[in-house]
Amino acid sequence: MKGFCEKKFSSMLISGTFTKAVMYLMLLSDSIIAGHFIGSAHRRN
Amino acid sequence: MTAIVTFFGDLLSTGVGIVFTREIGAMRKDRANEIYGQGLILSVGIGLLSAFMIFALQNVYFSVAGITGDILKHALEYYRLVPINAFLTIVIFYLEQMIYSDGDELCNNICYGFQIGGNIIFSVILTRFLGMTGIILGSVIGNSLGILTCFWHYFRKENTLRFVKANGTSPSIMLSMLVDEAIRRQHPDINAPVVSNIPISIRRQLGCEETFKNCSSRIQMSISGTPMDALPFDQRAVQLRSMLKQQMNPDIIRTINNAASQMYRARMEQATDFREEVSKPARFTTQSHDTFYLDYIGSMHKTAYADQMTDIRFLCQPAAGNTLHLNVIEHCGEFRVDFLAMYEIPGIIESLEQVLRDHSLTFKSIPMQHFTLPMAAWREDFI
């Protein structure tokens, strides 16, 4: 059986990482989508 | 612009998160809740402030960065909703940090899933119809979904004390009322009030919140056998709670403690060792009949690791004579009630089980145990 440190550690690690990363990941996805949109708009022109 | 949001978001959520966790650790739940509320108001305020800053400064930013032509057109479309998104980001930053402090990472992780997943899916779909505005609208929807997910955390917590809250009272009053019903079923011919001896902490009333010394006191309350018996169960629960609150008036408590006894002052001022502590008169002795003691210890282990503990027990020497002593601990959303007595009590237990069934409350009985306390033996040896 997993002890409480082992059980809690992975979920705290994931949450803790995402706490700091979530905003940048959202911006990154926005940038990729915006790049794709602007790129395809220029190609059409 | 990201820098503004990150700065304000981190400034608030990290700081309040630390202070909140400290107060929870020091078992000052009320103070922690106050900090939580103040933080929420601040996060909304700072969210609005940064939304306004972005709105006011965006043109300056574009001109300084030398953005012109098509790019400026696209950027302006994108920036239409950026202030709203900044506000939502700061609020969700705060909520997520507080939920993290509460130890509910599952809720956090689902939240992040909705934020990032919702953002990508909605951005891709909406860009087709709305162009650049669709991308930021995707972020706004992602963040809103995240905030809604945060509320789920509070509904999950809500179920712990549902019965007590539904009756608008506090746990010690509710348990006293249930035990009172059990006593009355055992003794139908009873013609005197049934008195519960309810523990209270008087640290705050005596103005010494920070002391580690024992500042508990007791309030004796007639649970039944008074004119209030005519009220329905739930109204009586509310009334008894307000009576208990009235008794907690600091002026009353200070007057009693100043006039009747030097005990509490002595406890505050003198450093005592264990020998002094036990040789001192420890409590008022009261002569009363049909009294039961109820020790509501509360939720001592409301931390992220509470669910890892399988059992908490608080045992002490029961009151002498025919007095029933109940130790109540709230743990993982359940109450553990230990009945301590110096006499045989199966009758009263059976009655209480019947009362709990009648109120549709679920419970689990643990077989009766006879025990002696090592502390008592050690204490006698010490003196």
What are the segments of chain A in which pLDDT stays under 50 over at least 5 consecutive residues?
Answer: none
Weakly predicted, low-confidence segments of chain B: 280-290
Q: In percent, how much strand structure appears in the residues of chain A?
A: under 5%
State the domain count of chain B: 2
Give the overall pLDDT of chain B as a whole number.
77
Kindly state the percentage of residues in helix of chain B.
Answer: 55-70%
Radius of gyration computed on alpha carbons of chain A? 19 Å
Described by the principal axes of the CA atoms, the overall outline of chain A is: rod-shaped
Q: Give the overall shape of chain B, derived from the CA principal axes.
A: elongated
Q: What is the H-and-E element order of chain B?
A: HHHHHHHHEEHHHHEEEHH
Give a quick account of the main beta sheet of chain B: strands, pairing sense, barrel closure.
Answer: 5 strands, mixed
How many angstroms separate the termini of chain A?
Answer: 62 Å
Q: Give the helices and strands of chain A as they follow along the chain.
A: H
Strands of chain B, count: 5
CATH topology-level fold name of the largest domain in chain B: Chloramphenicol Acetyltransferase
Please work out how many helical segments of chain A DSSP would assign: 1
Spatial strand arrangement across the major sheet of chain B: 2-1-3-4-5
Report the end-to-end length of chain B measured between terminal Cα atoms: 70 Å
Largest interface: A-B, 21 and 33 residues
Supply the helix-strand structural class of chain A: mainly alpha
Q: Using DSSP, what is the number of strands of chain A?
A: 0
